[in-house]
From TrEMBL:
This is DNA-binding GntR family transcriptional regulator. GO terms for molecular function: DNA binding; DNA-binding transcription factor activity. Keywords: DNA-binding, Transcription, Transcription regulation. It comes from the Bacteria. It comes from Agromyces atrinae. The lineage of its organism: Bacteria, Bacillati, Actinomycetota, Actinomycetes, Micrococcales. Residues 1-48 form the HTH gntR-type domain. It holds the Pfam family GntR.
Amino acid sequence: MPGEQLKDGELAEWLGVSRTPVREALLRLATSGLVVALPGRSTTVSIIDERAVRDARDVIAAMHELVARQITGRLSDDDIERMTDANRRFAAAVAADDVGAALDADEELHRIPVAALGNQALEAVLDQFEPLVRRTERLRFSGDAHASIELHDELIALLASGDAQKAASVAFHIWHSLPADDVADD
């Protein structure tokens, strides 16, 4: 919960690990804006900042646009099939109102072309900014996800067909259409 204090010792005990990996994980979460770490004091779950979400969403949209532009026509048949399968699982999860499964399938679908491109700098940018956007998606998941199913199908078809400009446009739209306002924690 936002504002909740996180204690590395308690987390380490709960997870059955030493404090070192917990501290490293908390530092990564702080870099992504999911927690606020005050050295020597405390770490707390952050309050969602609408501007930070909007900024992160814009960066992610641009990165996925770049991925689509560069990977279109280069994905293997297996990559396309895995994306199609992930979208099927996404659709089933949306129909079942299973937020966790839907977001997992969505993340898998979008990570396939990113991984296939192999641009480590781009992956690092996404690793930094996606957690904040995913957090807000989890909080605000709604029936609007049905539109994403069709957009995913369109993106997959465009990536396979070789139309880089249209694929890039759809990829950007998928991410940029995510709401970035009215995302304050309840």
